[in-house]
């Protein structure tokens, strides 16, 4: 396992958007991306290519190779054979920009475990609908992805082995509209934040996009998974307006005002102006579900404004509760206007892009004293927590608000403000300034260098912005990290009354033991947090059953509600079975569910029973 097979020397530059590669990096970030890639490759000690075993491609459940091959032939006639690709080559983990759609590059099990049988590339909503009808006819499961990054949550991998990955990004990647009056846009699944940023710039309109920490993901896909960004429009689902959805029977609907036809076959003129339309608000059931395939989505764009992003450092680990109590009213009163982050000082070490061995050569958790020694020599100084906040408006408004924010944070002894001019040019704060003012970045990826062969796995509980709750969750998470020997990287993305706590488990993909520990640790955190009343906002495909079951009030009433919807919309169970813990009827109770305490090292069903 530990054999050195470094792929050094011939590191290819990543594809760029301007080469009409939908998933490429922006030209403006190319040099940074190249440097990031070579840093990462220098931390690889095992091959990132996994050989295949057995007959390929891997079949979906409940079919024969003859039936499967005949179905694929038929699909090739529908889409053109060049748009149907069998997954029968070695699995390459690639890199952030050259990410695979064959499996999960950040595999937490054997990479061969969660693989598709084939990847198909529809070019339009009509073709998506045709593929869905084909899947119903042959009862073959589909796994739709937008672009398939979904880092730390399963990548492009299907939950059911042998599913057909429906890659919407490659050919459906247009920004369909940018409206400077309504300040909105309409995108297809293959539009990344990098691309939307470029298109808005090209348009010349004074509008911002809202990027998450990394800009490579799909704007539509991120919102459908209810992801978060960092301008005042950080709630991605909350700032969407209108969808087009292909249902599991192939029917196409438009939600909100889009359901009302515009004159002469045009899109409804109010589609991106009013979210709700008339009747039940359907959009929510197409997020974190497997009830439909979103092929178009509208978003609101924020008008450009002046802004200021700054850091506040706090001296003691135990300042944590006071920091949280100080932040809450500032957020609820909207004095802090975006989604700010609170991080532990160890993250200042991690975002330098250095391997942890540059700071510490020991095993197990990096001792607090070692973190202190290194932080003392960095711009943040000897501190415990670092707050990254932003203010928006006119210069006068920003200065007035800053006085209020300073007055509140200075109540915590030793609090220190750092502004962009106070830190060197290569400091992470400058990247944060851009993210918080609508510029899609790649800098955050540098965390991956913390370990060799690193993968990320995110534990993401929702934490009330309140002293007692945040303390309880942090205690659980700290104890379990210590038990399993992982460095603790907590990032609080503060919405208002709640914070998305993102705990980044960085593990070594080259070590089976490290992978097993990462999974055991996250399963235990999910379980203990749930017992204390806290649940995740999002999770990895292989942890979905466990998380879904924690939302079990009244004897799993919510899960049954989801199953009722699933069975009525998707009676053949073809759409993303198991996604978000929702299993169609023909899979339920047949051993597919991966619950806590079931320590299977595979996603396959417990028994060999037929569907
Ligand atoms: C991050 C944030 C997330 C997430 C995964 C990673 C950022 C880490 C708010 O949501 O789901 C720095």
UniProtKB/TrEMBL annotation:
Q: Which stretches make up the FAD-binding PCMH-type domain?
A: 112-304
- What does this protein need as cofactor? FAD
Could you list this entry's UniProt keywords, alphabetically sorted: FAD, Flavoprotein, Oxidoreductase
Q: Which parts of this chain are annotated as the region Disordered?
A: 1-23
Coiled-coil annotated spans: none
Q: Which domain of life is it from?
A: Eukaryota
A single GO cellular-component term from the record reads: mitochondrion
**InterPro entries from the xrefs?**
Cytok_DH_C_sf, FAD-bd_oxidored_4_C, FAD-bd_PCMH, FAD-bd_PCMH-like_sf, FAD-bd_PCMH_sub1, FAD-bd_PCMH_sub2, FAD-linked_Oxase-like_C, Oxid_FAD_bind_N
Q: Which GO terms describe its biological process?
A: lactate catabolic process
Give the Pfam families listed for this entry: FAD-oxidase_C, FAD_binding_4
Q: Name one GO molecular function term.
A: D-lactate dehydrogenase (cytochrome) activity
Q: What is this protein called?
A: FAD-binding PCMH-type domain-containing protein
Q: Record the organism.
A: Byssochlamys spectabilis (strain No. 5 / NBRC 109023) (Paecilomyces variotii)
